[in-house]
Structure formats: structure tokens, C-alpha cells
Specification:
Length: 238
């Protein structure tokens, strides 16, 4: 087993007034040569966006982009005809592929928007851009990791998918739980972010907004404290 710890306080930070951001990996003005990415996971930004503010229209290409609102709602618009609201409790997926422009703005004029924005390098470049969005309440089961995004080839009808052999899992634990996660694709590792709460994994105790990357192992056992919420992303390491 190999592992790397990313304590919450070690993340990059930026305060633009309208945006307060914490960066798990090098992004914008934050650069750390030891934190460029974790396998195919290139960006994991923890953003707080002021009311009515956000990211104006800008381009992307050859990136799988996942947005997970934690509080509030995102107003989305893109160049391939999609427009709407993405509230907390939904997940948004966009394959930038051959090129797309979009804007992401806080839909509220009086409340902050809190979200995770996550980018993965795709396994196929220059695909036709696409957009999808789904509520996850019906997917989540208590006290277990539940897969909310799959690779294209593994997804069935109405499931969210991306152009990468990666799996996004969310766990909501009302009770103390000991569980084992089985790597689904040989050569993959996991990047585990504690959204809130505490997790004990490989003799490491990590708490709110701490993260750990683990690879070169087929299974990972962990104990998750009561009232914890965890994001576990399985990604190719090569």
C-alpha cells in the first residue's frame, strides 16, 4: 500500500472577495510541484461563492468536470444549449471534450453558495461535449458508500457517467461504521475527502476537509465516525 496525506490546512487558499477557495491540487495562483494531481484527478476545489457572483462564461476542453453543491444552488448555462439550476443534493457532470463554454453563478442573491468542483483528465480526448445532472437522494443508502458516477462503459440507463475509468462514491454515516472498499478497476487508487466528521484508515485519523490518497492495494478498510459525510473518488493512477 502507498498513501499520501493532505491535511485540510495544507491546501492552497485564495480569497478574491466574491470567491473563497481551497485547492487540493495546484490551481490558479497556487502551485506546488508535489501536488499537481492524484492519478487522473487533476482538480478538487472547495469553493464558497458570494450571492449572485460566480464564474462568467469561459472555455474548457478535454476535461471531465463534476460539480457537487453542498449548500445553495448553481445557475448553469453553456454553449451546447443547457441552462438551469443545480441545487445542493444534485450532481452535475460535464464532458468538455472538443470544447465547450459555460458559466456557473450563485443562483441566490442573499446566500452563499458552497460547492466542490472536481476535474478529471479523460481517457478519450475530443469527444462531443455533453452535460448531465441528477439528484442523488434516491441513490444514497445510510451508513454505506454509494456510487454516484461511473465510467461510461459501466453505467446503465439514467446513471451519471464520465469518459474515465473512475468511480465517485458518497457515504453518509449516521452511525459509526466499519467498512471495506474494493477497488473496482485494477491499477486504480482512491482519494478520500472527509466532507465532515472523522475517518480512521490505515492507522491514520483524518477529520473534516482532510484527505488521503491510497493506491497499490486491492481493498481499503476504514472506520467512519457517527455523523460523518465522505467523498471517495476511485481513479486510474497511470
Amino acid at each position: 500500500m502507498k498513501k499520501i496525506l493532505h491535511p485540510a490546512a495544507s491546501r492552497g487558499a485564495a480569497n478574491y472577495g466574491w470567491l473563497q477557495a481551497r485547492y487540493s491540487f495546484s490551481f490558479a495562483n497556487y502551485f506546488d510541484p508535489n501536488r499537481l494531481q492524484f492519478g487522473a484527478l487533476r482538480v478538487l476545489n472547495d469553493d464558497v461563492i458570494a450571492p449572485s457572483m460566480g464564474f462568467g462564461t469561459h472555455p474548457h476542453k478535454n476535461m471531465e468536470i463534476v460539480t457537487i453543491p453542498q449548500f445553495g444552488a448553481v445557475k448553469h448555462q453553456d454553449s451546447i444549449g443547457n441552462e438551469g439550476i443545480v441545487p445542493a443534493g444534485d450532481i452535475q457532470v460535464m464532458s468538455a471534450g472538443s470544447g465547450v463554454e459555460h458559466s456557473e453563478v450563485n443562483a441566490s442573491s442573499n446566500e452563499e453558495l458552497k460547492l466542490f468542483q472536481i476535474w478529471l483528465l479523460p481517457d478519450t480526448e475530443n469527444v462531443t461535449p455533453r452535460y448531465d445532472q441528477k439528484k442523488i437522494a434516491d441513490i444514497i443508502r445510510p451508513n454505506a458508500f454509494c456510487t454516484v458516477i461511473k465510467p461510461k462503459e459501466a453505467a446503465i440507463e439514467n446513471e451519471l457517467w464520465i469518459h474515465q475509468k473512475a468511480y465517485f462514491n458518497i457515504g453518509e454515516f449516521q452511525e459509526k461504521t466499519t467498512t471495506t472498499y474494493n477497488i473496482q478497476q485494477k491499477g486504480n487508487g482512491i482519494y478520500l475527502l472527509v466532507i465532515n466528521g472523522t475517518v480512521l484508515v490505515d492507522n491514520e485519523t483524518i477529520s473534516t476537509r482532510d484527505a488521503i490518497g491510497i493506491w497499490d492495494v486491492p481493498t481499503i478498510s476504514m472506520t467512519i465516525a457517527q455523523d460523518s459525510r465522505v467523498l471517495l473518488i476511485e481513479v486510474p493512477m497511470n
